[in-house]
Amino acid sequence: SGFAPPTQHVLEKSExxxxxxxxxxxxxxxxxxxxxKPMTCRRKDEQTLIPCHVGEGLNTTECLKNKCCPSxxxxxxxxxxxxxxxxxxxxxxxxxxxxxxLILGCLPFCCCACxxx
Length: 117
Fold this sequence. Notes:
two-stranded antiparallel sheet
């Protein structure tokens, strides 16, 4: 009555369902990936527009939900893929490296202060 049939596998407390594990990994890596691969909708003159992979004829809201860029002019694509933002990536990496050097620079002083006590 309240028992699972012998052919069904019941998850133990220590086990994690594979789909839940994949979702947790995706939740962790998605912000990291977006930090290391910044994208922008600002287009330079020499860049060609690539249509968004979800389809054509999307309105602005649907375009943004699918992480694409809506077009502001009528003669271009209505929804296109964003471009890599190399300036933003350079700035982010510079801040990360500077923060790392700051932490490494302060580490000996903190260790000396702890050891003197």
